[in-house]
Amino acid sequence: MSTSFDTDSTPAEDAAAPVKDPLQLNMEVSKPHACLREVVVTIPRGEVDRYMKDAYDELVPEAQVPGFRAGRAPRKLVEKQFRDRIEDRVKGSLLMDSLAKVTEDAEFSAIGEPDFDYESIELPEKGEFKYQFSIEVRPEFETPDWKKLELKKPVETTSEEDVDAALQRVLSRYASLEASDAPAELGDRLLITAKFVDGDKTISEMDEERVTLANRLSLSDAVCENFGELMKDCKEGDVVTGKVKLGEGHANEEMQGKEIDATFTVVEVLKEQLPELTSEFLDELGEFESEDELREFVRGSLERQANFRTEQAMRGSIIEKLLASADFELPPTLVRRQMKRELDRKVLEFRRSGFDDDMIRRFVNASKQNMQQGTESSLREHFILEQIADEEKIDAEPQEYETEIQLIAEQSDSSPRRVRARLEKTGQMDALRNQIVERKVIELISEAATVTEEPVEKEAEEKNEEFAIDHEVLPTKDHDAIPAAKYDDNTPKGAETEEKQEKDKD
After folding, report:
1. Lower Cβ count inside 10 Å, N or C end of the chain?
2. Strand 189-198 to strand 259-273: parallel, antiparallel, or no bridges (unpaired)?
3. How distant, in Å, are the alpha carbons of 30, 52, 62, 91, 311 from that of 409?
4. pLDDT tens string for the chain (506 positions)?
């Protein structure tokens, strides 16, 4: 994705403005790293003087100087009084025009904005104007041979048992919860607080959080592997101690993989009672006319999830073959900056494919715990697929944006307009574009490949295997947690979501 440095002028202004001669400059580019360029720009004195003259020519007819009517002051007096303002304007114009020309002429493809300190750059009174900047660029490598790969395509089928299990998960969201004095069992809800201690130091505390009692508890940057064993048979008021293990990819390298003492306090034990599928409940759930219609909705979500897993397996197989013949470095700073962007892109994929809140939280937590390694791999994928897209002239079309937004809206009981507004507000439209383009490239490679379909024998998912919450055990400065309430899920179309509640208020 190339970066350009456009002016803010409108077409009408461009038509009215006189055509300026192209800016003359010299450019020296060094390559300290595969994804970084250091650029030194030198602008001759004659060009600086030309820009200064043009700026004064524009100012003098309108300049207001005490003792003179507007536009009547001697030019030398105007130049003396407004010199600082004109020099700053000229510096800005020279920088903007020279950066645009560098971007147009340079033999690299920028993926970031130029890095320089504007205030430290000075426009000299005499001699040439010189400045330098660094810029991240797409790595240079030979495009792997992607045609006629041999691939195996896993194909899943959705059974009635799968629909039964998924329907139970849907109903569980609407179960009535009653506080109980009975010991907690797997599947019960617990209202808990937690404290995390390293030695004598409390590193974080978790306020009241409602969790499902599962075998494992996944946090943003850690896992409690034996959560079910620890908390089974607990009662209201119990205080239970255990361990959580920080992820191997934690941002704090010294703490990677370290075990932290955890103290869980049980505020309440809640037992659930599933609702009956009465006509009133079906209508409230999403204006379903029958249980069969609800089952078809659930089946559709499961099939989208199965298609997603197939696409991911195909993508993984393709990328594995392409990476074997494309080796290039990635600077750590680029990897760190791309972590949240890559996470956003993948969460969008989950949303459109009908995964529920808990599944997305599990993915996000697992990704954060090994974020750097996963981001490096994803960046390599991105650069390879983007290069193929450029060569094959593949891009995202307006209608494809609308289709993606519609799918996300359908899964979140929201309007396409609201989904688009949220994506634009959070800067995720670029992630959506990458998602569309990369999927189209994968489809292109798949169509050119020899594909053998293989039925998938699904392993039975153990009930209450894991529950995920969004809490950082060891907070970091660049914490980019995605609050659980902001996830979309595959709740049936009439279910109460945060966005629907906001809509009702409107």
Report:
1. C
2. antiparallel
3. 47, 53, 54, 47, 21
4. 333 333 344 444 444 455 678 899 999 999 887 788 999 999 999 999 999 889 888 877 777 777 777 766 777 777 777 888 888 999 999 999 999 999 888 888 887 788 888 999 999 989 999 999 999 888 888 899 999 899 999 999 999 999 998 998 888 888 888 999 999 999 999 999 999 999 999 999 999 999 999 999 999 999 999 999 999 999 999 999 999 999 887 888 889 999 999 999 999 999 988 899 999 999 888 788 999 999 999 999 899 889 988 988 998 899 889 988 777 777 766 776 666 666 777 777 777 776 777 778 777 777 666 566 666 777 888 889 999 999 999 999 999 999 989 888 877 668 899 989 988 888 788 888 988 999 999 999 999 999 999 998 766 555 678 999 989 999 875 444 333 333 333 444 444 433 334 444 43
Contact by Cβ (8 Å): 283, 489: no
Q: What is the DSSP secondary-structure string of 250-284?
A: -SSGGGTT-EEEEEEEEEEEEEEEPPP--HHHHHH
Confirm if 246 and 144 have CB atoms less than 8 A apart: no
Structure-token pair, residue 382: 């991105």
Cβ atoms 29, 108 nearer than 8 A: yes
| Structure token digits, residue 311 | 């696409």
**How far is 255 from 196, CA to CA, in rounded Å?**
14
pTM for this prediction: 0.57
Integer Cα distance of 264 and 361 in angstroms: 20
Q: For residue 247, what are the contacts with CB-CB under 8 A and spacing of at least 6? A: 221, 222, 223, 256, 257, 368, 369, 370, 371
CA quadruple 343, 344, 350, 355: dihedral sign: positive
Spell out the residues 6+ positions from residue 14 whose beta carbon is closer than 8 angstroms to its own.
none
CB atoms within 10 A of CB 452: 9
The H-or-E segment that residue 83 falls in is: helix 83-105
Q: How far apart are CA 439 and CA 346, in angstroms?
A: 12
The DSSP 8-state label assigned to residue 110 in this structure reads B
Query: SS3 breakdown of the chain: % helix, strand, coil, rounded to 5?
Result: 45, 20, 35
Amino acid 205 reads E
**C-alpha closest to that of 492 among 502, 500, 483, 504:** 500
Q: What are phi and psi of 152, to 5 degrees?
A: -110, 130
> Dihedrals φ, ψ of 254, to 5°?
-70, -20
379, 330 contact by CB (below 8 A): yes
Q: In this structure, which amino acid lies at residue 97?
A: D
Return d(Cα 112, Cα 333) in angstroms, integer. Answer: 12
